[in-house]
Structures are given as structure tokens and as C-alpha cells.
Amino acid sequence: MMSDMTFNELDPRRAAVLKAALDVFTNYGFRRTTMDDIARAAGMSRPALYTHFRNKEAIFRTFVEMFLGAVAQNARSVLAERASIAEGLEAFFDAAFVAPFRELMATPHGMELAGVNEDLCGDITEEWFADLEGALRDWLDGAVADGRMKLGGLKSAVLARLLINAVEGIKSRGGGKGHHADPEAVTAELTLLAQMTARAYGPRA
Predict the structure, then answer these.
(1) Does the pLDDT at position 4 exceed 90?
(2) CA–CA separation, 63 vs 17, rounded Å?
(3) Within 10 Å of residue 32's Cβ, how many Cβ atoms?
(4) What is the pTM of this model?
(5) Which pick of 35, 51, 137, 159 has the fewest CB atoms within 10 Å?
(6) Is there a contact between 139 and 88 (Cβ–Cβ < 8 Å)?
């Protein structure tokens, strides 16, 4: 997904910087990368680079914001494509959490970049969580409206928040391994979560 991101709506030179930074960060790590490295990879001078971004932290935050926005949009799309509660939740969990995590961990410096994201982009991540909760809430409302789910007195917003928190707990614990977690093991637990939710709130519950 990172390599497939579109930068068409950006100024071409800012887009060139972000593409170059993505390559440098993933191959050499954030801490080792300098603004000179990014400028060289983008084919511009260091002074020219500073006219677009004040430092590498600003570049990293801009990329993360774009990347998480694309992840959220894709997660909304996979929800809209599925009627089955279990299948919809499984697909949503994978699109929003597992697939991006797997892709990041496949890069040479994925663990470092995950840590840098936590240090630099907490506010962006919180907004992303709120976006995901909203997408899941809307989908749950639709499932209730057409009879695929019965929540009783539970509000869809509460269930959406509980599910997102549960997913984050499963992913962050990762069998006690944190960023070393096995994506396939995480997927298995998230599949179980989706199936349990479908059974608990399905029309026969």
C-alpha cells in the first residue's frame, strides 16, 4: 500500500520529497537519515528541500498522515463490499490493522519506524482511530437497520470503540512480542474476535 499511494494532488516537488523520503526511511531507518539524504534522493538541493519541509520529522508526519488516511479509506471500502458480519469485520481488521502492520514489518527498519510513529505521530494516530471508529459505527448502524445485527441496548458507537480497542490490544500485545508480533498469529485472534462478535450480535442472538 505504501508504494501504491498516490501523490497526484500534491505539489510535484513535495510529492518527490515524500516519495524519496519513503524510500530512504524504509531502507536506512529514520534516525540514520539526514535531510541531505532526502534531498539527494529527491534530486534537489538541501536549501530547496527546506522550502517544502522544515525537518525530517515534518516529512515523516506528513507521510504518516497521508498513509493512515489511505488505510482508513480502504478499510471503509472493504466494509461496504461485505454483507456478512463476520466477513466484514475480518476484512476491516485486516485492511485497517494487519495489512499495514505486515507491510511495515517487511521493510528493513519496520520496527524502528513503528517506534518513531509512536513518538512523533500520536495526535495523527488518535485522529485515525476516531475515523476508523466512525466508519465501523456507520457500518454497524447499517447492519442493525437491515436486520443483520441486534445490539439490544448497546449503542453502535460503543461497540465500535470496544472493537477498535480490542484490536489494538491484540496487535500491541502480539503474544507478548509487541512490534515483533507475528502478523499471522494476530490475524487468527482477530478472526476469532470477528466471529465472536457476529455470534453475539447476529439476528439469532
Answers:
(1) no
(2) 10
(3) 12
(4) 0.91
(5) 51
(6) yes
Lowest-confidence range among 17-26, 130-139, 183-192?
A: 183-192
Burial degree of 157 (CB within 10 A; 0-12, 13-18, 19+): middle
- The string of pLDDT tens digits covering residues 93-137 is 999 999 998 899 899 999 999 999 999 999 999 999 999 999 999
- Integer Rg of the chain from CA: 19
**Angle CA 101–79–181, to nearest 5:** 20
Closest C-alpha to 76, from 128, 3, 10: 128
Task: Show the CA angle centred on residue 157, arms to residues 154 and 160, nearest 5°.
Answer: 95
Burial letters 173-185, b for 16+ CB under 10 A, else e = ebeeeebebebee
How is 142-201 classified by DSSP, letter by letter? HHHHTTS---TT--HHHHHHHHHHHHHHHHHHGGGTGGG--HHHHHHHHHHHHHHHHHHH
Task: Phi first, then psi: give them for residue 82, nearest 5 degrees.
Answer: -125, 135
Higher pLDDT, 174 or 44: 44
Contact indicator for 18, 35 with CB cutoff of 8 Å? no
**CA-CA distance, 7 to 101, in Å (whole number)?**
21
Provide the grid cell at 14.
513535495
Copy the grid coordinates of residue 162: 470496544
Q: In this structure, are residues 197 and 148 in contact, taking their beta carbons and an 8 Å threshold?
A: no
Distance CA 149, CA 147 (A): 5
